[in-house]
C-alpha cells in the first residue's frame, strides 16, 4: 500500500471517529426514511445501538414523530437540494430524549434544533439526507427563565402602581 493510500485511510478513520464522538446527533436517512447512519450522540441519548436502528424506518423506531409533518419538511431537501430547519421555539424536540443533566438542568427533556441537509451522490441525485440534532436545552432553559423573570417584574411593577393613592 502506498504512503498516500495509508494517509488517506488514516484520514478516513479520523473522520469516522469524529462523526461518532461529536456532541451533535448525526443521522442519515434514505428516501423511505430508513436509518443509514446513527452516531454516538444518538446512541447515547436514545439508548439504541446503530445496529438496532440501521435500515429501519425512522417512524417505526420513533412513533411519536409526526410523520406527515416531517415528510413535508424533508420533501424540499430531497427534491430541491435545499436545507430545512426545525427550531426548538417552533417545536421543542423531534426526538423526546430525556434531559441528561437532571440535577443541574431544570428541563424534563432535551430541546433540539434540527438541520436537514441533502447528500448529493456522484450522479448529482439526492438519495439520502443528513439530519443534525443540536441540544438547545441550556439556551431554551435560560430563555424560559428570563421570560418568567420579565413577567414577574412586569406584574410587580403593575401592582406597585395600582397601590399608589390618588391615581
Automatic annotation (TrEMBL):
<feature type="domain" description="PAS">
    <location>
        <begin position="13"/>
        <end position="79"/>
    </location>
</feature>
<dbReference type="InterPro" id="IPR035965">
    <property type="entry name" value="PAS-like_dom_sf"/>
</dbReference>
<dbReference type="InterPro" id="IPR013656">
    <property type="entry name" value="PAS_4"/>
</dbReference>
<dbReference type="InterPro" id="IPR000014">
    <property type="entry name" value="PAS"/>
</dbReference>
<protein>
    <submittedName>
        <fullName>PAS fold-containing protein</fullName>
    </submittedName>
</protein>
<dbReference type="Pfam" id="PF08448">
    <property type="entry name" value="PAS_4"/>
</dbReference>
